[in-house]
């Protein structure tokens, strides 16, 4: 019985938890926030004033990506990930 109650509480937490979306650039983060409204939290990796063609991911960027529920990027692939 205790297991059923525990599983119910954990499932409720997962259902009502905000989805964390990390994007490569800020405009994608803005789009994700507009779509998800208050159900999502968003963050982006590459600062707006940096040339994203020359940006190299740092270890803390990769940690942020791996902790996210969803990673959104532009193009056919991010070569450094």
Q: Care to describe what's here?
A:
- With 81 residues, this protein is an alpha/beta fold.
- The protein has a domain at 17-72: 3-Layer(aba) Sandwich (Rossmann fold), CATH 3.40.50.1980.
- Helices cover 43% and strands 21% of the residues.
- The chain has three helices and three strands.
- The protein has helices at 2-16, 26-36, 59-67, and strands at 19-25, 40-46, 70-72.
- Strands 2-1-3 form a three-stranded parallel beta sheet, with helices on both faces.
- Strand 1 (19-25), helix 2 (26-36) and strand 2 (40-46) form a beta-alpha-beta unit.
- It is globular and about 50 Å long.
- The model has no long low-confidence stretch (mean pLDDT 81).
- InterPro entries: Bact_metal-bind_prot9, ZnuA-like.
- One of its GO terms (biological process) is metal ion transport.
- It holds the Pfam family ZnuA.
- One of its GO terms (molecular function) is metal ion binding.
- This is Zinc ABC transporter substrate-binding protein.
Major pleated sheet: 3 strands, parallel
Looking at the overall shape, the CATH architecture of the domain at 17-72 is 3-Layer(aba) Sandwich
Distinct helical segment count: 3
- Oligomeric status: single chain
Which parts are unreliable, with pLDDT below 50 for 5 consecutive residues or more?
none
* Residue fraction in strands: 15-25%
- Termini gap: 44 Å
Strand order of the largest sheet: 2-1-3
Helix content: 40-55%
GO molecular function: metal ion binding
GO biological process, one term: metal ion transport
Organism: Sulfurihydrogenibium azorense
Pfam families: ZnuA
């Amino acid at each position: 019985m205790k297991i059923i109650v525990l599983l119910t509480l954990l499932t409720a937490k997962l259902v009502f938890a905000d989805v964390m979306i990390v994007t490569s650039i800020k405009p994608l983060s803005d789009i994700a926030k507009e779509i998800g409204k208050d159900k999502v939290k968003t963050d982006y990796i590459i600062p707006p004033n940096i040339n994203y063609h020359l940006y190299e991911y740092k270890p803390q960027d990769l940690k942020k990506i791996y902790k996210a529920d969803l990673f959104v990027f532009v193009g056919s692939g991010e070569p450094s990930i």
